[in-house]
Design a protein that fits this description.
Layout lengths: L4 E10 L5 E9 L2 E7 H15 L16 H18 L3 H4 L2 H14 L6 E7 L5 E7 L4 H12 L9 E8 L5 E6 L6 H7 L5 E7 L14 H16 L7 H12 L3 H8 L8 E2 L3 E3 L6 E8 L2 E7 L5 E7 L3 E12 L9 E13 L2 E8 L3 H22 L28 E4 L11 E2 L11
Helix pairs in contact: 7-9, 8-9
Length: about 450
C-alpha cells in the first residue's frame, strides 16, 4: 500500500556557485519528514535501479533549460507520485539503499548528527523504559532494542509499533501518528512541533481477536493488559457497569487472561479514539468523537441542539476513502516553512442501497487512514488463511508471501484514494486497493 508521502511546498535556494536550486519539503503522514534536492533524489533513483532494475516507478526527467513555474509544479507532483509509488513495493521499503538514504536525509534536514543517545519509551501504564540507541536508529531498530529490554518475543514484534503520543495536562493522551519502520524516532521527537510528545509502545492491530496470538508470551500479555486498563481508564473502551465490576475484581486478582477475555466483550475494546473533531453527518458542523477498530468506524455525534447520536459505519460497506491535506504557509521565508494544516478524511459508504460520502474533519486524518488500511490488511490476511490459494504481502509483520489473489472476492470491499487538493497542499492521485485489486498494490 502506498504511504502518505506528499510534497506540499518547495523553495528556491542559492548555491555555492551563484546559481539557485529547488529544495523540496517532503511530508509523511502530515508532518515534515525531510527536505531534499532533485539531484539527490536522481542519484538515489539510479542506486535503486541498480538493485531493483526496471520494476521501479518512472522518475521525473531532467530539465536542461531553466524551468518555468508550471514546469516546477509538474516536477513537484511527479516527485510526489514517485515517492508514493515507490513505497508500494515492500522489498524496496526493506532495502538498505532505501532506508540509508532516508536516514541521512532526516538527520541532515534537522541538523542532527549520528551519535549515541538515550531515549525514553513510554509503556501503556504511563511508565517508561530508557534505552540506549543511536540518533540514526530507525523505528524498526528502536522497537527491537526496546523489546529486548522488556523481553518481548521477537517473533511478535509485528503486533506492536512505536507511536508519537501527546500527553495532555488533564491526564488525557492523543495518538499523534504511527511511526514508519524507516522513520528515526529520535529525530521525529526532536523535530515535532506538537507539545508534550513522547515515543510510546502500543499494540498495532485493530482486530481484538488477534490478542489470542500473544497469549504464550508473558511480556506481550502484560503490554496488552496494561493497554486495556489504560483504554478503560481513558474511556476509550466503555464497559457496562456489570462489566466494570467484573473487570475490577479480575484486576485485583491480577488475572490478566480472564481480564482480556472479558475486555474483548467491551464496547470499543481495541479501538483507537481520535481527539474530538467535527463531521458532516447527519448535518454539517456536528461535533464527533470517533473510535476506529474491530472493522468499524464508530462516531458519537453531538448535534447542534446538543442531542447526541451514535452511528457505526461497518468497514465491509465502505467502498473507498480519501484524505485531503490542505493548509496555508505560516512562515514563507524561514529555513523550514511552517504549515497551518486542515485535514479531512471522507469515505464512501453504502446506506439504504445507495452510496453516500461522509466527511470527518480531523488533524488525525492520516492516522485514521492508517487504521483503515490496517483493518483491511488484517481482513485480507484472515481471508487468505481461510482460503489457502489467497496469500498476500504483509509488510507490517516483515513477511514476504506472494501468490495469486482471486480478484472477484474483493469487488464489494474497499478502495483507498488520496485526493488532490485544489490548493497547494495535497496528497495526490488514486491508490486503489480493492475493486480492481492487483497483487503489486498490496
Amino acid at each position: 500500500m502506498k504511504m502518505h508521502f506528499c510534497i506540499p511546498v518547495s523553495q528556491q535556494r542559492p548555491d555555492a556557485l551563484g546559481g539557485r536550486y529547488v529544495l523540496y519539503s517532503v511530508y509523511l503522514d502530515g508532518f515534515l519528514f525531510c527536505q531534499v534536492r532533485y539531484s539527490q533524489l536522481h542519484r538515489w533513483n539510479e542506486q535503486l535501479r541498480r538493485v531493483f532494475g526496471n520494476c521501479l516507478p518512472p522518475f521525473p526527467p531532467k530539465y536542461y533549460l531553466a524551468m518555468t513555474a508550471s514546469m516546477a509544479n509538474v516536477r513537484r507532483d511527479q516527485l510526489e507520485q514517485y515517492l508514493q509509488n515507490l513505497t508500494m513495493d515492500p522489498n524496496v521499503l526493506r532495502s538498505d539503499v532505501f532506508v540509508d538514504f532516508l536516514k541521512q536525509l532526516q538527520l541532515s534536514t534537522f541538523n542532527i548528527t549520528a551519535k549515541s543517545t538515550s531515549l525514553d519509551i513510554f509503556l501503556p501504564d504511563g511508565k517508561s523504559i530508557k534505552i540506549e540507541i543511536l540518533t540514526s536508529d530507525t523505528a524498526e531498530r528502536v522497537l527491537e532494542v526496546a523489546s529486548h529490554k522488556i523481553v518481548l518475543c521477537r517473533e511478535l514484534l509485528g503486533y506492536f509499533g512505536l507511536f508519537l503520543i501527546r500527553f495532555h495536562k488533564d491526564d488525557k493522551l492523543s495518538v499523534v501518528k504511527k511511526m514508519a519502520d524507516f522513520e528515526l524516532p529520535y529525530v521525529s521527537l526532536q523535530s515535532s512541533e506538537v507539545e508534550n510528545c513522547k515515543v510510546g509502545l502500543r499494540k498495532w492491530y485493530m482486530d481484538p481477536s488477534l490478542d489470542s496470538m500473544l497469549m504464550d508470551c508473558r511480556t506481550a500479555v502484560d503490554l496488552i493488559y496494561l493497554q486495556a486498563i489504560q483504554d478503560i481508564e481513558k474511556e476509550w473502551a466503555k464497559p457496562t457497569q456489570v462489566q466494570r465490576e467484573k473487570l475490577t475484581a479480575l484486576q485485583k486478582e491480577d488475572n490478566q487472561i480472564k481480564f482480556l477475555e472479558l475486555s474483548r466483550e467491551v464496547q470499543h475494546y481495541g479501538c483507537l479514539q481520535l481527539d474530538p473533531c467535527t463531521c458532516d453527518y447527519p448535518e454539517p458542523g456536528c461535533l464527533a468523537v470517533v473510535s476506529v477498530g474491530n472493522n468499524e468506524i464508530s462516531c458519537h455525534i453531538t448535534l447542534p441542539d446538543d442531542q447526541t447520536q451514535d452511528v457505526i459505519f461497518q468497514m465491509n460497506r465502505v467502498k473507498c476513502w480519501q484524505v485531503t491535506f490542505l493548509g496555508t504557509l505560516l512562515d514563507m521565508d524561514g529555513p523550514q516553512q511552517t504549515l497551518n494544516q486542515h485535514l479531512e478524511l471522507r469515505f464512501q459508504y453504502s446506506e439504504d442501497s445507495r452510496w453516500q460520502w461522509f466527511v470527518i474533519y480531523t488533524r488525525q486524518a492520516f492516522l485514521l487512514s492508517s487504521c483503515l488500511k490496517k483493518m483491511i490488511s488484517e481482513k485480507m490476511v484472515k481471508l487468505a488463511a481461510e482460503n489457502p490459494e489467497m496469500q498476500i504481502e504483509v509488510p507490517e509483520q516483515g513477511k514476504s508471501k506472494r501468490n495469486h489473489i482471486q480478484q472477484s472476492q474483493w469487488k464489494n470491499y474497499s478502495n483507498f484514494l488520496l485526493r488532490k487538493s485544489k490548493i497547494s497542499i495535497k496528497v495526490a492521485e488514486d491508490d486503489c486497493i480493492f475493486g480492481t485489486i492487483k497483487e503489486e498494490d498490496l
